[in-house]
Amino acid sequence: MAVVTDRTTEFIMLFSRHSQRIYRFIRSLVDNRTDAEEVYQNTCTVLWSKFELFETGSNFWAWSCQIVRYEVLNYRRRQNLERNIFSNEFFNRVAERAMVTVDELDRQQAALSVCYELLSARQKEVLEKIYEPEASTKSVARSLNRSPNAIYKTLRRAHDLLFSCIQKQLQSGDFF
């Protein structure tokens, strides 16, 4: 039976906190989903194998991003794409921007989670139904026994509240 060390626990905690961000970062750099999943698996393996080099207390996200960049470059070399489409300099610029974009999306998602809780039960119900596959304003109105106009008004109020709340949250940073 394997012994779980403090470093193993540290890795599991850090990786579980950042795994979705890492995957989204890879997905922003690799357009094919299957290839992105392969790069993600390779990245996970490298993160674990090199974790002994990670300095406790430093930025795991930034460290992971550097490994992702190398893994994506390796993928590009294996696919022989770098000579045919983009230079490594271009790729590095895209990767830098993608890191910022992933951070922005994480902040927006966190703000949305906070703001969603401020909606009334009725607003939440309408939002959840309107975003179901094949849903329309008319079908939601029918299912809730309300007029389409009432559904439009509820959606408008909910979207306005979410928009203003998210903007305030992003400006203040209070959602973390």
What is the number of helices? 7
Give the CATH topology of the largest domain.
Rna Polymerase Sigma Factor, Chain: A
Portion of residues in beta strands equals: under 5%
CATH architecture of the largest domain: Orthogonal Bundle
CATH superfamily of the largest domain: RNA polymerase sigma factor, region 2, helix turn helix motif
- SS class: mainly alpha
Mean of the pLDDT scores?
85
Gyration radius (Cα, Å) is 21 Å
Shape descriptor reads elongated
Q: Low-confidence stretches at least 5 residues in length (pLDDT < 50)?
A: none
CATH class of the largest domain: Mainly Alpha
Biggest pleated-sheet summary: none
Spell out the helices and strands N to C. HHHHHHH
The figure for the number of domains is: 2
Helix content class: over 70%
> How many β-strand stretches?
0
State the distance separating the first and last CA atoms: 38 Å
Protein name: RNA polymerase sigma factor
GO biological process, one term: DNA-templated transcription initiation
Keywords: Sigma factor, Transcription, Transcription regulation
GO molecular function, one term: sigma factor activity
Explained architecture:
This protein is an all-alpha fold. It folds into two domains: 1-85, Rna Polymerase Sigma Factor, Chain: A, CATH 1.10.1740; 96-175, Arc Repressor Mutant, subunit A, CATH 1.10.10.10. The chain contains seven helices and no strands. It has helices at 6-29, 33-49, 60-79, 88-116, 121-130, 137-144, 148-172. Helix 1 packs across helix 3 and helix 5 packs across helix 7 (148-172). The longest helix has 29 residues, at 88-116. The chain is elongated, with a radius of gyration of 21 Å. The two termini are 38 Å apart. It comes from Gimesia aquarii.
